[in-house]
Each structure stands twice: as C-alpha cells, then as structure tokens.
Amino acid sequence: MKKIILYIIAFLFTINLQSQTLKEIDSISKEFCKYLNTIKHIQNDHTRINNFYQNKFDVYLEKFDTEKVDKIGQQLFYRLQRNCLDFCQLLERLYPPKESIYRTKKKPKTKLTNLEIERFKNKNRFKYLENNGNETHVEMANNYWKDVFTDSTYSMLKYKWVSDFEFELVFVESNNEIRTAYSITGDKFIYGVIEKGENYYLISSKIESQSHYELFKLYFD
C-alpha cells in the first residue's frame, strides 16, 4: 500500500472523529492545499510550514474540544498527504525519505513480458521501505494484499488484476493507527508492475482521485 510520511509534528495531535465526517475532513484538506499554493513564494520550508500551521491548521483545530483535537488533527494530517501533493513534497523536503520518490503525470508502461508478469504473480511475499526506513512486509494471497508493519499491526486490501500489468487495491481494514487515519474502507489504488531489478520490482502507484503516479521498489528474496 502507498507509503506515507510518518513524521508527526508533536503539537498537532490531541482525536474522536464522531463530529467530523470524512467528507468534511477531505474538504478542509483541499482548502488547506489551496492555501499552501498561495504561500509558495515563501522559500524557506520551515517558515512555510509554520505559517501553514499557525494560520490554517491550528486555527481550524481550535474550534474543537480538547478531547477531540488529537484524532481530528491526526486524520487531517494524513488525509492531507493523500489529497495534497504540495503538502507531501513539503514534508519530503523537511524529512527526506530513505528512498527517493519519483513522480510522473505520464502513465508508466511496463517493460516486462507476459511471462515475466506471470513470474511476479507467482510470488506472494515482498517488502518495501517506509519513508522513515522501516521495512513493511507484504503477503499477496487469495486476492488479498496484507501489509505487516514493524509493530506487528497490519492493513488488509483486496486486489484484482485489471490489465496485463496492473492490479487494483481496495482498502478493507487496518489496526495500524496511521493507516486508519490515511485510508478508509473502499479507498482505491492502482498498481502497475513496471520493471524488474536484481531483487525488486519497480511498481507504479496511483490513488484513484489523483492525476500523478509514484514509483517505488517492491523487494523480494
């Protein structure tokens, strides 16, 4: 499943989403994304993100009761990463990922033959690096993709092949705090198997609502 910036700004989180629907959270995240675009002239990233928190994020959270602020702030922080590329790139500059992230608006095409794709399909255990360097293990079996994280929590997604080299992932459930803030049941991702290295496959990833693709390495033994 898509990798996420895991770094948490300490003062952000104090939450129960009972009063906030996901639709409202996503609407606010898109509004915040537009604001970030208006302050692109601020070249210092630390100054820019502090401006964003002080003028938008913190101001929005002030209207909630103390016992709700943490969870609302957490979900907004991670849905912002899902909905706002500018926010993702800002975090990546402040907290560089262990593996570089490549994005493109042009849909990547596979360089593999049908036989090589079949060999991928015959594998069922992989791993990938989170942005902080942690290894997440993947099990693909019985039309389910299961992420197992370093703290032994997991995420479960259904998958089905939608073309010769692409498969669709649909988020089902997770007991991982970050993934449950980032995704909800029914969220969709399209993955493409692009090429093969010595011990990895290069995978393209696209969130259903976004126009760009991200590429990452899915390792195998």
β-strand percent reads 25-35%
Strands of the widest sheet, in order across it, are 1-9-8-7-6-5-4-3-2
Look at the helices and sheets and give the structural class.
alpha+beta
Q: Count of DSSP E strands?
A: 9
**Mean pLDDT over the residues:** 90
Keywords:
alpha+beta, 9 strands, 221 residues, 34% helix, globular, 9-stranded antiparallel sheet
Question: How would you characterize the overall build of this protein?
Answer:
- By secondary structure, the protein is an alpha+beta fold.
- The protein is 34% helix and 28% strand.
- A hairpin with a 3-residue loop joins strand 7 and strand 8.
- Helix 1 crosses helix 3.
- The chain is built from 6 helices and 9 strands, in the order H-H-H-H-E-H-E-E-E-E-E-H-E-E-E.
- It has a 9-stranded antiparallel β-sheet.
- It is globular.
